[in-house]
Write a structure and sequence with these properties.
Helix content: 10-25%
Distance between the termini: 53 Å
Number of strands: 14
Strand order of the largest sheet: 9-8-14-11-12
Radius of gyration: 26 Å
Largest sheet: 5 strands, mixed
Structural class: alpha+beta
Order of helices and strands: EHEEEEEHEEEEHEEEEHH
Oligomer: single chain
Length: 236
């Protein structure tokens, strides 16, 4: 099965960049703090162990990691600073907010804040070889990479109608992607975001083959053929 069948030898200008995603509720964040005073920084590098979550790893393995969990109200519980709003911010905005609070309260001088997602993942379902949850430690993954990690599309997949479901600002956005078109390379959905869901629809042939009536019809016709042959021999 062919992808991008309207693409010839060419150079396609790609202006699409991976958009820095907004932090969402239930995200698990690693936040490290450093400064010229290591002892003073130490207290800010002890996330709540009760926020530990099981994260799926490669080859079906899972491991428990602890970090700062964005709660249902969109806040993280940070040492000394207390509740800090995280949901709806980018990592840079949250980093600036924490740094500003530490400096204003004279807790640290010139702090360096590093924030990473611990559960950056996308889900791939439908007509792929291995439906799975794909973890992206690099915090950057394309739709093609996600499909490749799920074993690629099956021969029954609708390549012109791949669905991406994304949640933004409390709304679910559904976008249909045509993998037979070169326009995909400049689509804002070329790069996936954390918690995106990719669903690949089956074509009509796969749906028909799964119909119970279609599965039984050959057996019924075979049985009728045997009965007719047997009756014909008995009558003759």
């Amino acid at each position: 099965m062919v992808y991008f069948n309207d693409v010839e030898d060419s150079v396609i200008p790609t202006e699409v960049k991976a958009i820095e995603p907004l932090i969402q509720k239930n995200d698990l964040l690693s936040i490290s703090v450093s400064s010229l005073n290591p002892e003073a920084s130490k207290i800010f590098n002890s996330p709540n162990e009760s926020d530990a979550q099981s994260v799926n790893m490669a080859a079906g393995r899972s491991t428990s990691v602890s970090g700062y969990l964005v709660n249902s109200d969109g806040y993280i519980q940070f040492p000394i600073l207390g509740n800090i709003k995280a949901a709806g911010l980018t990592k840079k905005q949250l980093r600036d907010e924490i740094s500003k609070n530490l400096v204003n309260r004279k807790l640290l001088l010139d702090p360096i804040i590093n924030i990473r997602y611990l559960n950056y993942k996308v889900t791939v379902l439908g007509e792929v070889a291995h439906p799975t949850v794909v973890n992206a430690p690099s915090e950057k993954i394309t739709l093609l990479e996600a499909l490749g990690l799920a074993g690629d599309l099956t021969i029954y997949a609708k390549r012109h109608n791949v669905m991406v479901i994304r949640e933004e600002e409390g709304k679910k956005i559904v976008k249909r992607i045509n993998l037979n078109s070169k326009d995909f390379f400049t689509s804002p959905y070329y790069y996936l975001q954390s918690n995106d869901i990719v669903y690949v629809e089956p074509d009509k042939a796969k749906v028909a083959s799964a119909n119970p009536a279609r599965q039984w019809l050959p057996l019924v016709f075979s049985g009728l053929t045997v009965v007719i042959v047997a009756m014909d021999r008995l009558l003759n």
